[in-house]
Amino acid sequence: MRLTFLLGEVGNGFRRNASMIISVVLVSMVSLFFLGAGLLAQREVSVAKGFWYDKVQVSIFFCTDQSTGVQSCTDGAATQAQKDQVKSQLDGMEPLVEHVYYESSQQAYDRFKKQFRGSPYLSDVTADAMPSSYRVKLSDPNKYNEIVASFEGQQGVEAVSDQSNVLSTFFKLLHVISVGAVALAVVMVICAILLITTTIRQVAYTRRRQVSIMRLVGASSTVIYLPFVIEILLATLIGAALAVGLLWALVHYGVEGLFNDSGSTGTLVSMISTADVWDFAPWLFAGAVVIALATAWITLRRYLRV
């Protein structure tokens, strides 16, 4: 079959069935966009966990004069001897304990003022109310319970806090969003398959006379099928390209623009980037090809007897 004839047939098909081809493009774009969004959300869960778990710290807070209702603080503020005892115990817990950082009450107060600047309640907080603490970097954050068992309830220690517990809700939310996006993508892919099937049936019906003539002159099934398949394949690939473009814009202007900007919260959280979009782009295009070819070929063999 000559290439010029094939391209001419594809071009004619696009012109004759523009509305249906546009429908395939749009539904392919939406379904692949949600699929890509689900994959990016899963990647964000991995990136965020890697970022935070690499920096997660266990905080051992010492008693202050204002600590009330805590049995280990009945003697008032923690003494230097009690702090030294905690430090000695931490040093003996290597290699689980990688690093130990001491934060004084004044340093904690300065950090508090920076994080909550502009708050109307800031003037009610004084440096003496902020507990000093040891920030403990663990080689394995999942073994936080060993630190709790060693220091919780010890004299001079008001509380032991694990940042990973605070972040678990964030990770769960990301996971729910990613699963929801993938589930919606599956629904949209099913819609795309149904629409492609319907489109092919309609196109085949409108060209039934042309197909009959091609049969009479002895055209093979491949010659008859190929223009249909290429039309659907091109429409689906255009949809995939639009989906990748939307994902790139979402990440570049939304995620990177709002979160990874050096002047905003970029130092507090690690987010996905446009590089992750390009990592998934080949898989989205491959999925578009598989959906288009499989759906088109099966539908043609069923509804376009040659």
From TrEMBL:
Membrane-spanning segments: 21-41, 173-196, 217-250, 280-300
GO cellular component, one term: plasma membrane
Keyword Transcription: no
Domain FtsX extracellular: 56-160
Membrane topology: Multi-pass membrane protein
Top-level taxon of the source organism: Bacteria
UniProt GO BP: cell division
Purpose: Part of the ABC transporter FtsEX involved in cellular division.
Record-stated family: Belongs to the ABC-4 integral membrane protein family. FtsX subfamily.
Name this protein carries in UniProt: Cell division protein FtsX
Source organism: Flexivirga oryzae
